[in-house]
Amino acid sequence: xxxxxxxxxxxxxTRKRLPRWLLLAALCxxxxxxxxxxxxxxxxEAEFDKxxxxxxxxxxxxxxxxxxxxxxxxxxxxxxxxxxxRYNFAWAPGAAKxxxxxxxxxxxxxxxxxxxxxxxxxxxxxxxxxAGIFDEKSLGVSEREGLARTIRLIEATxxxxxxxxxxxxxxxxxxAATLAxxxxxxxxxxxxxxxRKLCEIVEYEANHFLAPGYRVPYWNGRDGNTRAEENAWDxxxxxxxxxxxx
Length: 246
Fold this sequence. Notes:
By secondary structure, this protein is mainly alpha-helical.
């Protein structure tokens, strides 16, 4: 998770580690690609505008150029990320259109099958756009077009949340964390309504776990589900919220 806090590592160490970390994160999200909101009073647009003002954009000046050294593992990871991103850039326009058409009317696993990958792809494509690894020849689109498609996907997916967790509350917090992280990475490129919507989603999904009566799921001793995975993905929204709005 990127943070705007002062790192205890030296700047040189950060520059060396960032590209590899971003590539691995993007690879996991691209290849692999909960909860109802808390009973809190809805915010007004003015209040959300204030919340948007509290977002701390990533200071990209802290990071150096990506590694260009000859390294078998780095090269393999880079190739896999770009190959996956190529298909996701091609997939994004149609996905955004389908999400727009289904907005507020998801049924069954429809949201799982389109919103979940849209959130994951939004994050991973944002990494490709900002990590200094964009390669037009490998990706089949210009950087400008790739950015436009990613922003369009973020806008459509965020707008479809509608304070209803995309009609799939079990995993919506997980999806929201990846979508918001992608939006935070591209924060300077988003328009005000999309920024406001992302802040609204982050607060809405995170507040569920602060609501009175919320109980952390855990193994009940009667089946094999420890709920550990659910708790892991649910906690991601707190990390994103704290990094975006420290």
